[in-house]
Each structure stands twice: as C-alpha cells, then as structure tokens.
C-alpha cells in the first residue's frame, strides 16, 4: 500500500509539472515586433562574440560569426539596446518597439584605446579579442581559437593551433602535433565534432581523431567546451572539440584569401611547398537580396622532413643491463589536401538552410632504416660482448581521409525555434602492400656494446657497418585497411519566454546515430629464400647509399625498390600468415539513441542551465577466434545493450561588468576504444600451460562526474585573468589486465584482455592571463602578453592476481601531465607583427609496461618548444611572413621508470617557412 501511494504521489507531481509546462507554453504572447542588426568594426568586418542586451527585459544575444543579432516579438515599449565587446567602448542606443519589424543595420564599435579611433578585428589583438569575447559570453567554460588567431602562430594544422590554449596540449608524431589532450586527459577521452556531427576516426583501433589531418585554412574557428550541457552529445570526459566551418555570411562583402609558402627542414634540406585559398560570395536568389552564400576553401601542402631516433623499447633488465636497442633514421614526406564547400540560403529573417562539407586527405610516406642490436647477454654502457645485429627496412605509404557533410535548417516562428539536421562522416586509413620489415642479420662473437644514457651510441667493429656481412633473414609485408562511418539525424526545439522574473528558454531534442568500424589486415612472411632458388642473399645485393644518421654510424641503407622487386617475383599465396591475416579483422556496429530536455533561465546577473540527457547504446561486434591448439578458426560474435542518464547544472554569475563566476556539475561518458572492444580471441598452449589474449566487447563506457568552479576578470580594454578549478571522478576506468587464476580462466597461465576497473580521480587548476599593454605612449603599447598554466593530478588503481591473491597499485591516468603551460610575447604595429611562443608540458605516463611492477612504466619526459613568427604588411591586405618551428631544436625523450633508462630518443631539427598572403580585407 505504501508503494502504491508513492507511485500515485509521483504521478501527481509529474502531472502537475507537465500541466504547468504546457500552461507556460500556451501563455499569451505579449511580443509585437522583431528587432535585428549587425555589429561591425570600422572597415565593416563582422564582429563575433559581441554581447547585445536589453536590460529591461533581461534578454541577451551573442553575435555569431556573421555578426548578427535578433530579438523576436518584443513587447511594445521603449528600451535600452546595449552592446559590449572587449577592446571596444560600450555602445548604447534607445530602442523603440512598435508593431513593425526593425532592421537596425550595422552598428560600428569604437575602440577602448585612447590612441585608436575604431576597433579592427584583425591582427594579434583582434584575434585575441574575438576569442576572449566568445569565451566571456559563453554559458559554460569554453576555450576558442578563431581562424585569425590560428594565423598568429606558425601552426599548420588544427591540433597545433589548439596547443596554445589554456588546459590543452598535444601528442606529437614525428614532431608534428596530432592528437589533442584536454585537461590532461588522453585524446581518446575527448570528442571531435564538425558543425555538430561527430567526426569518424581513421585509425583502426581508436576513436580519437588525428587533427593534423585537417588544415586550419578550412575553418572559421575551433571551440573547446570543457563543461557539458544536456544538448551536447555524450562522448567526452575532458572536453568536446567543435570545429566550425566558414560561411560566406561570416564576411560583410565578397572575400578571398590566397597563401603560398615554402618550408625547409634541417634534417632533410628539401623544400616543402604549400598553397591555400579561400573565396566567399553572397548572391541574390529567388527574388531575395543577399540570400545565398557560397564559401569555398582549398589547401595543398607537402612537407618533406625527417627524424633520427635511438630506442630500447623498454628492454631493460635493471640488475644486469640492456638486452636490445635500435637505431632508426626516418625520411618522411607528408601531403595534405583539404577541400570545403559551404552553402547558406537565408530567405527572409526567420529561415535558414545550410550545407557544410569537408574533405581532407593526409598521405604519409615513410622510409625507416633501422639497425637492431640483440645482445646475447644484458649489458650496461661501456661493456661489449656477443650480439646479433639486424639491418631492417620499413617502407610504407599510409593515406588517411576524413570527410563530413552536414545538411540542416533553422526555423524561427515567433518565440519558437527549431532545428532539423542530418550529418554523415567517413574516415579511412589505407596502407596498401608495404614493407613491414625487411631484415638482414649478422652474428658477432664479441665487440658489440653501447655508450651513453638518453642517446645510446653503438660500439662495434668496422665490419658491422658493411653491407656484405649481412644475410637476408626474412621479409614481412602487410596490407591494412580501416574504415569508420557515422550517420546521424537530430531535431531540436526551443522556446523563449519573456517574464518579469527573467527570460526562460525551454529546449528539448532527440538524436539518432549509427557508427560502424571495420578493419582488414593481410600479412605475408617471406623466408627460406634459398629453397626457392634465390641466390641474392647478401645485403650488398639490396644496398643503396649510406644512411645520413648524425646520432651514430649506421652504414649503407637497404633499397626499398630492390625489396619490392624481390617479393613481386614470388607467389604471395605461398607466404600468407593465416593467423595474423584473420585475427585482426573485425567489425563493430554502434547505434546510439539520445534525447534531452533542458531549461535556461537568465535574470539580472544570473544565468542557470539545468537538464538531463539520456543515451542508449546498442553494440554488435563480430571478429575471429583462433584455437592454436587445434588450429581451428571460428567466428566470434557478441552484443551489448546499455543506457545512461546524464544530468547537468551549469551556472554563471556576473559579479560586475568585468568579473564572472562560473560553476557546473555535469556528467559525461566515453565509450571504449575499438581496439579494446575488438572480438579477436587467440588460445595457445606453451609448455602445457594455457594462454589467451582477447578483446572485450562487453566493456562498459567510462562515466564521469564533473565539478567546475572558476572566476574570470576581463580588462576594460583587452585582457583577462582567470582561475578555474575542476574535478572529475571517473568510473569504469579501462586498463589491460591478466585474468588468469580467476573465473573462467582459473586454469590459465595467462589471459590478457581489457577490463573495467573501479574509480579514477582527476583534479586540477587552470590559470590564464592575457594583457595588452597601453598608456605608456611608446613602443610598449604595441606589446601583447599571454600566459596560461594548467596544474593537474590523477590517480587510478590497476589490479592483477598473484598466486590467487588480488593485488593492486596506483597509477596516473595515461597522457596526463602535471603541468601544461604556454607563454607568448607579441609585438604589433600597422606593418610589423612579431610573436615568440613557448609551449611546455611536464612528463606523463605513456604506457604501463608491466602491470605488476612500476619500474617498467614508460614516461614521456618534459617537453618545451619555442616557435617564432614574423609578419610584414607591405601593402593593405598583403603580408610576407617568416616562421621558425621548434626554434630550440627540442627532441622527444621517453624513459622506462627512471631517466637513465632510455625508452626512445628522437630529434627533428628546426623547420623554417617563408610565405606570402593576399587578403581583400
């Protein structure tokens, strides 16, 4: 009976709430007219992120990239229209609302600087002003990089541009920024979207999107949301990186920009060209003036560079010494092609139709010459002994593509607004028939060793560097292909209600998405060449010129053309590795259904957002199971179904016109990587002991409870000082574990897979300061200082069994640096722009080498890189620029447990760029 009353009371409360909501929605509309306008600078450049408010009605609008604002169906009366923008004087106008729509036209803002009559949203200060205004006026905690701000640094892709922002850092590949980390969380814990559509990831086992694939020339801005609201799709713990495309309506007039540059890398001494262009035009269409916008962007870049590497891969016996190490020399050529076509149709003031497209292709051609030293017995530096040396070649061309299309419409009817949008994204990674390893070996009875700690140098007799002493051992060839597709459709509905208690916006929506990941791999192992009549077995038969390797001596290089000629003369079918060619093939299908409700209330200095999102996952996975004991392949199919409730409350309070306090309590989730979900299963027997390794399609998503609290103070002219505290409690932390000795694997000696752990904690502090000097009356007024520091700490427990006893130890979250910092000093006049930037991140845990022993944990060492850019405007709209990337020639270093134990050392040299840009500002 008690339970029945409880249900009855709950239903009554729900019925009252629903009735109240519908009564509110059906309340009489008091509004009579619409008011709209546009905010510009003195040259009619549109201003993004300006706050336009009507204090008497507690209404506020933030101008988008098109500089426009609109208030719908305002009650008749006389009001104050107030425009606020950092770097500009507040603009106030008297607004008289009758029953006729008002078009206010362009409102031009005056500069807050005593020495400048008008503001201008170009250059360093203009770019910073754009970003800060959007951050200040955002509901949650966001960090913004506009396309103008990206151009103030020597950054060639989206990832490198984001590393300059507070709380963000990058993971590099061959010295180039690839993946973005937000607040110390690994890239796989962050979502990347393109105009609201989640981008597919090209790499086989990951969800993380490598942002070096996307040229920064194609974009209007990149916005990183660090707090989650219910109208945002789940899929991130650290933050959501939203890539916003350019639109013709982002400019007040027809626009074009052309860029040409040439780069030079110290490692290769070759020229790297780049060409890019942007064009947009606004046309009349269907009898409507200026209603159709067309924007086109294209970019082509080829970068020729290299790196030199020496690594151990963690092959240390700490009692006896090093077991193996390798010298590597890379010659790399990377091509990037980017295309974007965006259409906007705006018939009237209340309807909008848009098409957003993106295509990006990234080709990475790599030739790696290696010298592998396998010591017969572990040795320390300075000792010599017996060893086998292997001369190894890897050569491949890997092409990644990402494409996206978004088609949608926004409709306004009175105080109602709705959005209908369909999106699709495709990504793939294709590495056709390639040399995974071509190995030539030679045995040495003595005289082989090494010297040094971080940079190991080979000690060997002269014959170790001669090609004729090495015999062909084996050639492994590979062919891999991975593809991911994502399709979605969403509908959002909102209504703004003007009340004496403040403005209230109710919003609800639903989204359905389908995601599919497939991988295919073929492996061939060519060996026993003499048995098929091949007599050319010396490395001298396949050698080319000497390897240009400054860290040590390597000798002659292996010719990739000769290796391809060798294997093409053989029947591939005779050399197929059946297990490797099937075990890594899999498909994962995910269907995600989502719905949300939320409300946003504003009054005086308060803004409050509250709501909840529900997401339901339906996942099917199919892969291969291989029983090595009986040599039997079988299909492995698994499914899972689960739902998640994700509530959030986000608050903002304006302490004054300059100071803002923000707070948020939110929840988020990240789905496991495809590598972790892959339903591959291998069962083996070694010395009569069972061993298994397998993926885990039954893994639960990582979920997090987030707390954010911070304060921002904005200068009257241009600048900010802010401090943001954050805490994340992560549940279902995923790590690699050995299940041997428990459950279904009680009789196994090894059973390696991925499991959900307990809780992990992450907390930190973001500090950010930007200041434009003024009032000195000399050259110092041209200085712009920017600095940010993020302090983070994390802890997670990993477990294992030892003789039936469950043991555990605490580790930091992978990729989490305790300190991340940026410092830049800019100097700008009407003709000269200079900027020196320093980017720093402290060491972080790269991987857990041995679950049971922290001594084998691999750490990436501290990294601090300097970059410099100089620009000379020799004519209005024409700039000559010079960039130096990695000015201090900072290498990459990783170690095992302690800095004296090399895991990997790699150096990249400096890159110099000279270019010219023509823009019709």
Word description of this protein:
Residues 1-31 form the signal peptide. Its main location: membrane. Residues 475-887 form the TonB-dependent receptor-like beta-barrel domain. Belongs to the TonB-dependent receptor family. This is TonB-dependent receptor. By secondary structure, the protein is mainly β. The protein has two domains: 31-139, Immunoglobulins (Immunoglobulin-like, Sandwich), CATH 2.60.40.10; 248-919, Beta Barrel (Maltoporin, Chain A), CATH 2.40.170. The protein has seven helices and 49 strands. The strands form six sheets. The protein has a 22-stranded antiparallel β-barrel. The N and C termini lie far apart (75 Å). Residues 1-31 have low confidence and may be disordered.
Largest sheet properties: 22 strands, antiparallel, barrel
Tally the helices. 7
Shape: globular
Number of strands: 49
Fill in the CATH topology of the largest domain.
Answer: Maltoporin, Chain A
* CATH level-two architecture of the largest domain: Beta Barrel
Spans of at least 5 consecutive residues whose pLDDT stays below 50 are: 1-31
Q: What fraction of residues sit in β-strands?
A: over 45%
Pairing-aware structural class of the strands and helices? mainly beta
Compute the CA-based radius of gyration. Answer: 30 Å
CATH class wording of the largest domain: Mainly Beta
CATH homologous superfamily label of the largest domain = TonB-dependent receptor, beta-barrel domain
Any idea how many domains? 2
Percentage of residues assigned to helices = under 10%
The first-to-last residue Cα distance is 75 Å
In round numbers, the mean pLDDT is 88
